[in-house]
């Protein structure tokens, strides 16, 4: 029954609450109320929903929690996920040590309370379109870009808040992946390309 409803919503161009970023964040917050949220919690909660949620949550964590080590851990997580997508794997695997990286429950809850209402209005703009961007060869090219952006977060963490730049780009791409919105994915790719070009210009 749930699958039928989900399929009906997908066919009509609507996102279900469990597909929305705000819904995913609230679900994770409620399920782990009173406990720290680890990458393993994210993996177990969202793995069945594809690779989009597996990217959007750590990208968001890297944006809202610029604590030393968090952006690097999130970047490694996203790189490992995207590499597996690049090679066609359906279910992401991560080493146990990386799974144990966590964020305080209260900090995460406060972030969800602040961000989730704002994402509701953004998500109304998302809908399945240009779906060829999220399939076949195009998906593998985007996965490669996600790997590169994710790995760039570790060295950028040496500069205050610099890791937020690739994290923001990755969040945009991941949102497009969740909604199968090829237009948003393409916008994220263009912004990412411009951002990489700007970084190279600054470094060279």
TrEMBL record:
<protein>
    <submittedName>
        <fullName>Exopolysaccharide biosynthesis protein</fullName>
    </submittedName>
</protein>
<keyword id="KW-1133">Transmembrane helix</keyword>
<keyword id="KW-0472">Membrane</keyword>
<dbReference type="InterPro" id="IPR010331">
    <property type="entry name" value="ExoD"/>
</dbReference>
<keyword id="KW-0812">Transmembrane</keyword>
<feature type="transmembrane region" description="Helical">
    <location>
        <begin position="137"/>
        <end position="154"/>
    </location>
</feature>
<dbReference type="Pfam" id="PF06055">
    <property type="entry name" value="ExoD"/>
</dbReference>
<feature type="transmembrane region" description="Helical">
    <location>
        <begin position="55"/>
        <end position="83"/>
    </location>
</feature>
<feature type="transmembrane region" description="Helical">
    <location>
        <begin position="183"/>
        <end position="203"/>
    </location>
</feature>
């Amino acid at each position: 029954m749930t699958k039928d409803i989900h399929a009906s919503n997908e066919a009509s161009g609507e996102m279900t609450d469990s597909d929305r970023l705000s819904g995913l964040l609230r679900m994770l917050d409620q399920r782990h109320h009173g406990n720290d949220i680890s990458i393993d919690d994210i993996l177990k909660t969202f793995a069945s929903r594809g690779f989009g949620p597996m990217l959007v949550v750590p990208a968001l964590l890297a944006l809202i929690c610029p604590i030393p080590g968090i952006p690097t851990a999130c970047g490694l997580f996203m790189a490992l996920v995207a590499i597996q997508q690049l090679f066609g794997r359906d279910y992401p695997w991560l080493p146990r040590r990386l799974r144990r990286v966590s964020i305080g429950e209260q900090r995460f809850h406060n972030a969800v309370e602040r961000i989730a209402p704002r994402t509701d209005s953004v998500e109304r703009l998302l809908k399945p379109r240009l779906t060829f961007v999220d399939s076949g060869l195009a998906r593998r090219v985007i996965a490669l870009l996600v790997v590169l952006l994710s790995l760039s977060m570790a060295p950028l963490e040496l500069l205050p808040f610099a890791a937020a730049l690739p994290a923001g780009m990755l969040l945009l791409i991941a949102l497009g992946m969740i909604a199968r919105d090829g237009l948003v994915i393409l916008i994220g790719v263009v912004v990412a390309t411009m951002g990489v070009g700007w970084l190279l210009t600054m470094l060279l």
